[in-house]
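Shipment paperwork, digital attachment
Item: protein structure file
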Amino acid sequence: MTPECERVLDCLDGPLPPELASHAAGCEDCRALLDGFQVLAPPAARPPPVPINEAKLEQTRRQSLTELAAQPLPTPWWKEVAVLLATYLGVGVVGLLVVGRNGLLLNSASPLTVALVALLIVVGVGGGAMVALAPRQRTWPFTLVAGGALLLALAQLTGRSGVQVRPFLAGTLGCLGAEVALSVVPLALALVLLCRSAFQPVRALAAGLSAAGVSLLVLHVHCPDGSAGHLLLGHVLPWFALAGVAVLIRSRLPSRSYAP
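Attachment content:
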């Protein structure tokens, strides 16, 4: 063993100086010695565990016990659906009274067609509320919600009267504005109720279609314009757009619970 090898042995507990490092790189004995020392070296010390904030844990426990004592059982889901549907009914009645100052039922299509499409909208509104809030072990299929919405939109366009009473742009903008205004309260309540469970896009979409369907029903029975372009741009597309807005807003709202 050369004197340089002995110096390498003395410096095993720390980094080697440059001259010894160059010697160890070319010396077979020193390389074997360094490799063996690295294998036998003790593992790096682990960082100390983060101390638990006992005060915060106690505060969370007391808050949980207080909420549990105030409401030991969860609110039945059907009560939330009933509240949502009652709000839909109130908004629909108010909307008809406001926009129907010059007449409530101005749709010039046949009474049977008007009644059938209105019934489909009512079923869609109620079914959308159920899909949005009813608990299930699995998520609702997207094809069910999207297919129902497309069927209702097709019924609207198929059951049109074909009559154009007002100028196209003025009539379309008027119905669009009325549909958005009448959907604010139903959409807001539906989003509040949805935040009581984990975010699911299909449920949010169903809630948006259901809430905006209230204004769609009001416009269906009241609006005298029955041209395809007016119904598409002033009734159907705003309905889909409001449902998309509901999904977008819900995705950015915090969930108060992550139950299914």
